[in-house]
Structures are given as structure tokens and as C-alpha cells.
Inverse folding.
DNA sequence: TATTGTTATGATATAATATAACAATATCCG
DNA sequence: CGGATATTGTTATATTATATCATAACAATA
């Protein structure tokens, strides 16, 4: 599944995180350790499964994978793990897909946004202070106390426009 | 349910759309007429129900209301009507709530964003070219062809911060 | 090491949200 | 009118998510 050279680097990276799994797990372990919380074997494994999928995966997709090696897994098993990972900012939930994807830059503020391809299903996480700041300004102008924000845009990625 | 005077006007409006139902329906009727599509009695009624709720409502909440007067209504009934209304930009879907809310400004481009109160559940629609344009720029810089975008921020509205 | 409080997981059931598929009507338009 | 298209009815099922209570692992303290 090689990607044309005309496609911007940032998007290519989304297709190429096969090598990102181990570093992501290590980073997660360090973050959890520094926060004094536990990345248990189960949580770690779910995080790996999220990364092993190269696209956003649904909870039940992850559950099926987990069940193969962990027969006691049930919906609450996966949802608890995902809730934990999302709370800690190690995984993002894509609201418009009811799906989960590993965070490229955990430990930071998580004001990212996603570009989601309707064709191949891939999602590119973008760090963008501009959008986040604009939302912050709006909120404070209206007296609204922000706790989270979700910015998702859908369309066609460069690769999928060619077809 | 009066609102403190210290609360910005824009937010108050979200609490005060009791008077907005009829104009919203009329606007919808005009828009559909001009597009040569049919705002059938069923679709019109669902749109009214969306507006009669002063907050985002789920599909099954709407279905329960519709059933009282339309006993044949079933899940497909409400989802079809909602799909139509969303497609036509008369209703917005709030992804993070799986809920629907009337569009304050139908006929326009729908690059709005929502501020959603975690306490009272109300959602304020904001027209904001800044965020939309930033997303557009990002997308075109990456060669991504945008078709839709969803910007949702959650937190506490002014009224709910007082408690 | 007991005890106790806290956090995490197991297990079962069910709630909540959404769609598939096909039949029956209604509406449009030649 | 009559055929094509769009809308609604109907039943069944898929998909996503939580409630609940029991048990196990871990942490802190005495």
C-alpha cells in the first residue's frame, strides 16, 4: 500500500504508523508512571490493539481482537480500558465514527483536530493552536467554561481522490 | 426560568427559543419549496418536535413524542425524517451527544460550532468563520477535500457555573 | 502479616442508538 | 391514466454502550 509522492508528508504519516506502536506504548508507560496511575496489562494490551489497527477502530472490533487472547473479555472490559486511555489522553475517541485511535502526541494538551477520510476511513490528527484558540476566545467571550473540545472534519484524503 | 443579567445575550437566546418554533418551521417550508423538495407533514412534525425541545434531543426521545400522535411511528420513521432534516441543513446532529437540535440559521453554509453545557445539556450554536476557515486552510494545505465539519466544545454555561 | 480501603476485573444482563430489508402508499409527471 | 419515483409502514436485527453486583488485586497502615 505505497503512497504517491505528491501526497503531503503529514498525511502519509497516518498510513505509516506500523513503527509507532512500541514507542507509543513506551511513552504511555512513562506518562502513567509519572502520574502515579497504573497501565495494567489489560490496559496496555488494549492500547496496543488500538495502535495495531492503522485506522480508527470501534469498541467491538477491539473487543473481538481482545477476546482471542483473553476469553473473559466482555463489553465492559473494553469500555473501561478505553475510558481510562481516553481520560489519560493516550487514545482519542472520534465522535463521528464511534471509534478510537491512538494519540500521536500524548502528554500534551489534546486540542487536536481530525481529518477523516470517508473512503479509506483513515484519520489524520492535526495539532492546531489556531482552531483551539479561536474556540477558547469564543467561549470566554460568552462566559462559557470549557472542559473539552472536539473538531472533526470529513472528506476525501489525497490518495482516495485519485480514484 | 429567568436568566441572570450578567449572562451574555448570545447564551440567553439558547434558553429562549420558545418563540422561535413557528418562524423556524416557516423558514424550513420556504427553503424546501425553493429547492423543490417536500417538507411532508411527518417531516414537518418531526422538525416541530425538535424545536419544541429546548435542548438537543435523542432520536428515541423524539420517537416517543411522535408515537403519542402517530402510532405507526418506529425507529426508521424518526431516523428517516432526521436524516432528511439534517441533509437539508434544517437540523444539526450533535455528534458527542447523539442528539439533534434545530438549526438557527438554515439556508446558510453550516460551518457552525456548538458550545454544549455538561450540566443543563443546552447547546449554543455559534456562527464562526474563523474556525471554519482555519479548518479549510489546513485541509487544502494537506490536499484533503472537505465535505463536512463538526466542531463541538463542552463545559459549563454561565448559568450552571453559579451553582 | 492481618486489616482495611481502594482500584481493577469478571460476569451477566440490558439499555440505547441505528440500520436492513421488503411491503404498501402516496405523489409526480409524461 | 399509468408508470416511475419518493415516501411511509412494518418487522427484524445490528451496533454501541451501561448498569449492576461479585470477586480479585493492590496499597497503606497498623
Amino acid at each position: 500500500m505505497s503512497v504517491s509522492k505528491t501526497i503531503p508528508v503529514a498525511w502519509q504519516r497516518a498510513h505509516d504508523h506500523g513503527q509507532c506502536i512500541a514507542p507509543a506504548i513506551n511513552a504511555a508507560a512513562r506518562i502513567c508512571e509519572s502520574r502515579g496511575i497504573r497501565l495494567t496489562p489489560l490496559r496496555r494490551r488494549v492500547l496496543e490493539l488500538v495502535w495495531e489497527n492503522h485506522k480508527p477502530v470501534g469498541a467491538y472490533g477491539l473487543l473481538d481482537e481482545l477476546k482471542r487472547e483473553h476469553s473473559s473479555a466482555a463489553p465492559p472490559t473494553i469500555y473501561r480500558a478505553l475510558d481510562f486511555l481516553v481520560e489519560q489522553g493516550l487514545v482519542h475517541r472520534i465522535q463521528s465514527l464511534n471509534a478510537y485511535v491512538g494519540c500521536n502526541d500524548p502528554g500534551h494538551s489534546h486540542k487536536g483536530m481530525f481529518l477523516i477520510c470517508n473512503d479509506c476511513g483513515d484519520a489524520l490528527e492535526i495539532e492546531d493552536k489556531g482552531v483551539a484558540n479561536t474556540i477558547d476566545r469564543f467561549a470566554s467571550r460568552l462566559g462559557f467554561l470549557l472542559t473539552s473540545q472536539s473538531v472533526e472534519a470529513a472528506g476525501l484524503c489525497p490518495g482516495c481522490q485519485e480514484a
